Amino acid sequence: MIITNAGRNAVAAALANNTPITVTEIAFGTADRFPTGGESALTSEVLRKAVLTHGVTEDGKSFFDARLEAEDGPFVLYEIGLFDAAGTLLFIGRIEGFNKLVMLDQPVTLDMRVYVLTSQFQNVVVQIDTSFAFVPAARTITASGGLSGGGDLSQDRELSLDFGSLDLAVAGAVDLTEDTLVLYDASEQAFRALNMDVLAQATLGTAHFATAAAEEIAGKARWLLKSAAYTASPGDRVAADVSGSAWQLDLPAAPEAGDSVIISVVDGDVTTNNLTIDGNGATVMGDATLAIDTAIGSVPATILLVFTGSEWRIA
């Protein structure tokens, strides 16, 4: 982070008049660029938050606290700027692609603390205290129980199945016929499922567990693309297209407790063409129908509905 030209002028005036400089707002932007110091504003400002508290640490670092509300976003933030009460951009810096998410099912505010260390106002170093974040950098992913890989969260990490410990998994309390490992294949944008029989066939060359048809397993992993009225079956994964018009999806007519249906809007604008989910005799979250009519940024709306025995609930 660097001091701006306007910031230098403000510092000079403050030193001449023996008055403090007060940072009152922290702004965030989405422009992926490196600052030069000549800026008077962020390139692509999307958020500006009031400084809630500020102070100085024992080692001389000034800090400023701001709060990002649950509804702020979703953004990938690169720019950060500190402003005074007159709206002057004093300091500008770059953060490496901080993801501010919006989680409708679990609204969470995010308190952020920015540390500023100055040395005769020539160089300014900003640190973001990650203990306030959803996932602190000090957190690690520890692989165990048949997994290998992991590590700290300073970079992308990969987890792999350790087939050498397959006998440990078999020895656990598992149902060798029904238990399924479900993975998301990012390259195909689809879920893949393996039961113990298929897993053993692929790794050991023999199916000595209880048999389940591979075609059935593969079928459960496929998405059903629908663009008009449809009645779902238990276990369906419905990829809904509302680009042509609004339409209604009926849930299974005689569900059993534990039945589930996944619905993802993959095309179209739900704010214009609503997708209505009908309980087909049962209630959905307490009502006869549930309307998907709110967009979540550019991310497709996806919900998992589970039948509790008395009604359908969002899991």
Instruction: Give the averaged pLDDT, no decimals.
Output: 76
The class by helix and strand makeup works out as mainly beta
Distance between the termini: 42 Å
Order of helices and strands: EHEEEEEEEEEEEHEEHHEEEEEEEEEE
Entry summary:
With 315 residues, the protein is mainly beta. 11% of the residues lie in helices and 41% in strands.
What does this molecule look like?
Helix content is 11%, strand content 41%. The protein has 315 residues and is mainly beta. The strands form 6 sheets. It has a 6-stranded mixed beta sheet with strand order 15-17-19-23-24-21, with no helix packed on it. Strands 1-7-6-2-3 form a 5-stranded antiparallel beta sheet. Strands 4-5-8-9 form a 4-stranded antiparallel beta sheet, with no helix packed on it. The longest helix is centred in the first third of the chain and has 13 residues, at 5-17.
Features:
single chain; 315 residues; mainly beta; 4 domains; six-stranded mixed beta sheet; five-stranded antiparallel beta sheet; 4 helices; 24 strands; elongated
Topology:
Blueprint lengths: L1 E2 L1 H13 L5 E7 L15 E6 L2 E4 L5 E7 L6 E10 L4 E12 L9 E10 L3 E6 L11 E3 L4 E6 L6 E3 L4 H6 L8 E6 L4 E6 H9 L9 H7 L3 E3 L3 E2 L5 E5 L5 E4 L9 E8 L7 E4 L4 E2 L4 E4 L9 E6 L3 E4 L1
Parallel strand pairs: 15-17, 16-18, 17-19, 18-20, 21-24
Antiparallel strand pairs: 1-7, 2-3, 2-6, 4-5, 5-8, 6-7, 8-9, 10-11, 11-12, 13-14, 19-23, 20-22, 23-24
